[in-house]
Design goal:
With 253 residues, this protein is an alpha/beta fold. Helices cover 25% and strands 33% of the residues. The chain contains six helices and twelve strands. The strands form two sheets. It has a seven-stranded mixed β-sheet with strand order 4-3-2-5-6-12-11, with helices on both faces. It has a five-stranded mixed β-sheet with strand order 1-10-9-8-7.
Length: 253
């Protein structure tokens, strides 16, 4: 499985993502965010790499003021239209995260389903997302990220994985480049009722993964402190044998 081009993150996204199994878990994920961050309901929230707005819209339905940002025009158009139909307090902007200029404006920043963390061309570019997060938060503001765990990748990749939902099945293949701490991720989706063809993973997305210790170090240099970490949206404690890593941090005053 070969790496896609370094700017892959600008090109691959389609509205077909709405039918993937993990989208069905959105409400439970938002429940966990609200509970874990102890949100009162009046917080202003920034959702980075918001996709088609599934978390942003769900939060807006619960009364939060939300701003969503994504690089894919079709996603932003869909989310904007949906917010208008529902008359929700949510605004969406099409932008590269690195170009945002928010300063001390948000009570909460989210990076869900990776939230583009590790997607950029090199470590210097990837750090810019952490800088944007810190700059956008008010002092005392909180960041919630849902990413993959580099400790797990180092000890378990290469491997394959499958996940099923109400509408279809997702097959995934993972490879690992330890020198660059980069995962190569391939995915094939099948809708129930379709005739299956043999899965071939010819190329995959290169994603720089982080350990919890690396996140702690990155944030310490930006005036942020990691407060909690979990392995999934049930609140399970994180270990090096968990593929998912949820990290909650706070901007120091």
């Amino acid at each position: 499985m070969r790496k896609m081009e370094s700017d892959w993150y600008r090109k691959i996204w389609t509205m077909d993502i709405q039918d993937q199994s993990w989208v069905e878990d959105t409400k439970r994920q938002v429940d966990f965010i609200v509970k874990t961050l102890k949100l009162a309901g009046n917080e202003r929230i920034l959702d980075l790499a918001c996709g088609f707005g599934r978390h942003s819209l769900e939060l807006a339905r619960r009364g939060f003021e939300v701003v969503g940002v994504d690089i894919t025009p079709d996603y932003v158009a869909f989310a904007t239209e949906q917010a208008g139909k529902e008359k929700r307090n949510a605004k969406f902007y099409c932008s590269d995260i690195r170009e945002l200029g928010f300063r001390n404006e948000f009570d909460v920043v989210l990076n869900m389903a990776d939230g583009a963390i590790g997607y950029l061309e090199n470590d210097t570019e990837n750090r810019k997302i952490f800088e944007v997060i810190s700059a956008a938060l008010k002092p005392g503001g909180q960041h919630f990220m849902d990413i993959m765990n580099a400790d797990y990748a180092r000890s378990h990749f290469p491997c394959k994985h499958w996940d099923s939902g109400e509408k279809g099945l997702t097959l995934s293949q993972f490879a690992w480049d330890d020198a660059s701490k980069t995962m190569i991720y391939g995915q094939i989706d099948y809708h129930f009722g379709d005739i299956l063809s043999k899965p071939e993973f010819l190329e995959g997305n290169p994603i720089r993964l982080y350990t919890l210790d690396e996140i702690i170090t990155e944030y310490a240099s930006l005036g942020m402190q990691v407060k909690q970490s979990f392995a999934d949206f049930s609140g399970k404690c994180l270990t090096e044998n968990d593929i998912q890593m949820i990290v909650c941090s706070e901007k120091q005053s």
